Amino acid sequence: MLQPSPPAARPGATARSTSGAPAPAGAPNRRDLLALGAGLAAGSSLVGCRTQAAGEVPPSSPEREAELDELFADLADRSGDVEPIAPAEHAARRARLAARLEEHGAQAFLCEGGATMSYLSGVRWGLSERLFALVVVADGSHFFACPAFEVDRARLALEAAGAEGDVVPWDEHEYAWRPLAAELGRRRARRVLLDSRARLFVAERLEAELGEGSVGSGSALVRALRGRKDEHELRLLRRANELTQEAILAASHHLRPGMRSPEVAELMAHAQRRLGLERVWVLALLGPDAALPHGGENATVLAPGEVVLVDTGGSLHGYQSDNTRSWVFEAAPTEHQARVWTAVRDAQRRAFEAIAPGVRCGDVDAVARGSLDADGFGPGYTHLTHRLGHGIGMEGHEWPYFDGGSDVALEPGMTLSDEPGVYLRDVFGIRLEDIVVATPQGADHFGTWQRGPRSPA
């Protein structure tokens, strides 16, 4: 990799050595050196890596983490700004689900580990070939189906989440299906709806045990429950996205010529973790690499005048952030860069202004495309090659979606990304993304809009 170049001192700043004495003119200060260390540390671990997907960025070595903590010493953990969802709220959600089962022609609902299980119980559990599931019954009861050897671990998971519920074990030689069917029969549940994320073998094996027609899709039920966020959920989503925006700005001050995508991602991720977000992921694209929405070779070295596109987010008490900022690094934007950035900004704002209860999601997507077309970057998918946005909540991407084929009518409490872009192959790409919420009066957005192409602020 190319060696990062020492940065020029910021106007009015006096560089000092680690002893506190003024450093020679043009010498990097300690924070500059720590930022440059990001390039050396992250770059050395990714030699030979040709592509970068938007994925969770793991912590660095303890030594490097300590350096980054010093670099971002002014950022403090703010995860306590909003309380997590309480066990009583999980219980109320299960009660709402149970009350609606009969109208959907069922007496039970089953979900595997994932967002819906966490939504209903607070319990987190990974997926394997062995079934671990939460079952909510129309009579208001619920239970967990669990491999017998995992029962103690399951009880610890329930305790950690403040959750209650029977744990129904099954042994390895019998598999889950007969004990599960027996428990459903004991609770007089004849038909079961499955979460949309449940795996095919779960549906097949359970129906084979219960009988034909006994298993159905619970997608509509889950959408009715999770599609509209309540006030507590909206507070969590708002704070999560505000913290991500704060982190992007903080990390942008430490970008240096010579960095590559992994180094930028390391800074962005650490700033968010300092602020209290978990499971942070980053897609950092530079210059022509940003001309593909999810990147390509990602070999560009950061230099003044290059476009920086950062798409990133994390989790706050299980609720997700997702923001994208695009700006020109250490230089005034060219006329062309400014024109593209402004066209994307206008498309984002016009789409936002179109949001209101009853408006079709597909029509909001059409407003953004029409705006870009009027500015010379259309029609259709010419330069905005993806949908306008996706729902967000406990999952980074969830129903509903701003896409041209969606007939979903917006309702108050629905939260989605508003993220138009213009992608000019082999030149650069601009994308701006903010999370918006439909309100009774129209729409609101979380955090602040990016103001211009010279900074992510």
- Which strand order do you get reading across the main beta sheet? 5-4-3-2-6-7
Instruction: Using the alpha-carbon principal axes, give the shape.
Output: globular
What profile does the largest beta sheet have? Answer: 6 strands, mixed
Q: Name the poorly predicted regions.
A: 1-27, 38-52
Radius of gyration in whole Å, from Cα?
A: 25 Å
Number of DSSP E strands: 18
* SSE ordering: HEHHEHEEHEHEHEHHHEEEEHHEEEEEEE
Tell me the strand percentage band.
15-25%
Which class of secondary structure composition applies to the elements? alpha+beta
Q: At CATH's second level, what is the architecture of the largest domain?
A: Alpha-Beta Complex
Distance between the termini: 30 Å
In DSSP terms, counting alpha (H) and pi (I) runs of 4 or more, how many helices? 12
CATH topology of the largest domain: Creatine Amidinohydrolase
CATH superfamily of the largest domain: Creatinase/methionine aminopeptidase superfamily
Roughly how much helix do the residues carry, as a percent range?
25-40%
- The tally of structural domains comes to 2
CATH C-level class of the largest domain: Alpha Beta
User: On the 0-100 scale, what is the average pLDDT?
Assistant: 90
